[in-house]
Write a structure and sequence with these properties.
Layout: H1 2-28, H2 34-54, H3 56-62, H4 64-73, H5 79-98, H6 117-129, H7 133-148
Helix pairs in contact: 2-3, 2-4, 4-5, 5-6, 5-7
């Protein structure tokens, strides 16, 4: 009889401890989007400034650190979208850097001295990828999430 009481008390203690652990976890995770939404709000103005300062592709490159920060804070369901945005913009930044070209002044019709045709093709490919359906879908997903979940417009 004593053995059953001890076993029952031990089982009850384990259930209570497990329940408290779940409650603590749920309390900490009340809003899994809170951190991300706070980051979206914090980065909205700097993102707008970076995009405006750089124009088309150069603005995206200037915004790359902001995109990375948003990706790091994003909920799981946005990781793929942010990864796509960051990868595509980083690819353009890399090929421009490899060619020794300033993103803000690059003009494919008037190539800077020393830029080879192969480098121009790489730049063109990376720039074209920024307008690809995959990139458009990723950017739309990020913007939709910011608007619907965070209540904050995020214009990319």
């Amino acid at each position: 009889m004593t053995r059953r009481i001890v076993a029952g008390a031990l089982a009850l203690a384990l259930l209570v401890a497990a329940g408290l652990g779940v409650l603590t976890f749920l309390d900490e995770e009340d809003d899994p989007f809170e951190t991300y939404c706070s980051e979206v709000e914090d980065q909205r103005e700097p993102l707008g400034e970076a995009l405006a300062a750089g124009g088309d592709s150069a603005g995206l490159i200037l915004a790359l650190p902001i995109f990375r920060e948003l990706m790091e804070q994003s909920p799981e369901d946005l990781i793929d979208e942010w990864s796509t945005v960051v990868a595509h913009v980083q690819e353009l930044a890399d090929v421009l850097e490899d060619a020794g070209v300033d993103p803000a002044t690059y003009d494919r019709k008037a190539l800077p001295e020393g830029v080879t045709s192969a480098e121009r093709e790489s730049i063109d490919r990376a720039a074209t990828a920024l307008g690809s359906p995959v990139m458009r879908d990723a950017m739309a997903g990020v913007q939709q999430q910011a608007r619907d979940v965070c209540g904050t417009p995020l214009v990319l």
